Amino acid sequence: MPEPITDEAVSALMPELRAIMREAADIARPFFRLGGQTTARIWSKAGGSPVTEADVAVDAFLKVRLSALVPGAAWLSEETADDPVRIGHDLVWIVDPIDGTRAFLSGHPDWSIAVALLAEGQPMIGFVHAPAGAADYEAVRGRGATRNGEPIRVHPRESLPGARITGPKPMLDRLARGAGPDTDFARIDRIPSLALRLARVAEGTVDVGLISGNARDWDIAAADLVLREAGGMVCDLSGQATTYNRADPVHGELLAAPVALRDPVLTAWDR
Fold first, then answer.
1. Which residues span the domain enclosing 189?
2. Distance separating alpha carbons of residues 124 and 7, to the nearest angstrom
3. Distance CA 121, CA 199 (A)
4. CA neighbours within 13 Å on the CB side: how many for 183?
5. Predicted local confidence at residue 189, as pLDDT
6. What is the CA radius of gyration of the chain?
7. Exposure check for the chain: N or C terminus, fewer CB within 10 A?
């Protein structure tokens, strides 16, 4: 497919992308045991994070199929050696073959397969497939976000009292201190898949999602677009929007929330 890609061409990719995501899930699903340890072989990557044979198999499958779907696109994935050709490239696939690997290997249902297509550094397609939760979150830039084909929007909450929040405990504690004793947050169990953490803000079941430092592009790019198209945003704790496909695809601490909650959260954070 020649560059630049048009909005119409992006939308035309979606039926085949849905089929590819389901095939990817079919590769991972036999290794997953709800409530029990995975049957997949497990080893540690540099830095100690786990990887399973399911991660590697899904990554290899998606590399072939997505590269065929958009032949001109570069590639950035958690399980593929980084190729600097992606830097400055117009089209880039950003892929996490299994987001929430620890959840996957321990039998927790909150893992996902996350795929984004970037154009000029910003996501044009975001697709988060949660096989154990039977949920597909999709977005095409400028065309809204859906869950299983139905439109989704962030919750219309505009202030912090009573907000449903999730994320690492130290970050939640800091936000609660800054918000004050009368805010009465509802704390939701931490969601292992960062992509799903953002997607649940997009669907309105979570109001504020906090993400500790060290997230990568592949953890958040797909769900970032889903959240944007649902009326939310992802930014750092100084309010700067996320950017993608940099030489170092690592992010600091992040906030995911409806646009209306951005300033209240940042104000509470800085107190």
1. 164-269
2. 8
3. 20
4. 22
5. 94
6. 18
7. C
